[in-house]
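Mods, move this if it's the wrong board.
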Amino acid sequence: MTDPRYAKLAKLLVEYSTSLKKGDRVLLDITDVPDEFPVELLRAIRAVGAVPIIEIRHSRITREIQRETDPRQAALVRDIEWHRMKKMQAYIAVRGSANANESSDVPGHLAALYAKTLRPVVDHRVNKTRWVVLRWPTSSMAQAAGMSTEAFEDFYFKVCTLNYRKMAQAMLPLVKRMKAADQVKITGPGTDFTFSLKGIGAKPCNGLRNIPDGEVFSCPVKDSVNGVVQFNTPTIYLGSRFENIRLEFKRGKIVKATGNNSRRLNQILDTDAGARYVGEFSLGLNPFILHPMCDILFDEKIAGSLHFTPGQAYEDVDNGNRSAIHWDMVLIQRADWGGGEIWFDGELIRQDGLFVPRDLKPLNPDKLK
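Not the wrong board. C-alpha cells:
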C-alpha cells in the first residue's frame, strides 16, 4: 500500500505549488526517489488534465557523467535539455540521494564547466516556468539531521505540507518593508556588514518554488556590500562540505574568503567574475526547521536565519550579477546560536532571530505553527 502522505504531497505540488491546469506541460525531474512517489505525481497531474513528461536520474550516474565530461558533451546535454525545457509550462524536481557527497570527487574544473554550460537551462526554468524543487527524505538526510529515519520522515512530511497559505499572508508586511528598504545593517558574533536594497524589490517564498519553504528574499545592490560575515552553519556545495566560512567584502566583492577548506572555497569563488559578488539576501522563517542538516533546501528556511548568496541573481529581484554559481550560505541568529541583529534604515527589524515590529510578529515561530 502506498504511503498516504505521498498523495497529499503530490496534490500540494500539483494544485498549489505549480497550479497546474488542463493542457499544461510539466517536466518531472526525478533523482533517486522510490517509484511510488512519481506514480502519485503522474496521477495527480493527469487528474487536473495536465500533460506530464518524466526524466528519471540516478546520482551515481550523474557523477560519472560529470567526472570525465568535456565541452562537447556538456554542450550537447545543454542543447537537448534546453530544447525540452522551452516546451514546458511547469517543472517539478524531486531529488534524493543515499550519499550527499556523491559528487565530491568530480574534479573542480569539470564541475564548473558542466555548471556553466548548463546554466541557460536553469535560467530558463527559473525565469520562464512555474517550478518547484524538493528533496526526498533518505537515511543519509536523517543521519545529517541527527535523527532516526522514521522520525526524520515524520518531520519531513510535516514540514513540507504545512499551511503555506497562512504563511503567505503573514509574509506580506515583510515583503513591503524589504521593497521600501535602502540601507541594511547586520551584526552578530564575528559579523558586521552593510549593503543597500534600494530599487531591487523583494519576493516571498511560500510553497510555490521550494518545498519545504519559508523565506522572503531580495538582492543587494551589486557594489554596495561592505564588511564581514561569519557563517555558523555547515554547507555542502559541489559535493564538498564547508564549515566556518568567513567572507570579507569591499564595494560588493568578496576580497577574502576563509573556512575549513579555504582552497576549495576560493576555487569555487573563482569560477567566474560574478561568483565573488552576491546574488541574493534572504530571511528564513519556517517554524518547524530549527537546526541545520547540510541540505540547503531545508537550511535556508531555518527560523531566525538569513542567507547571503555569492553568485547568480534572480531576474525578478535583480542586481545584474551573472554567474554559474549560486551558493546559499546560512547564518542562524537565534539566541541559542549566538544571536544577532538586522536593521533596515535604522529600524531594528529582527533581534536574536525574532521579528520586533508589530506587523512582523506574525512571522515568529510561535505564530506560524
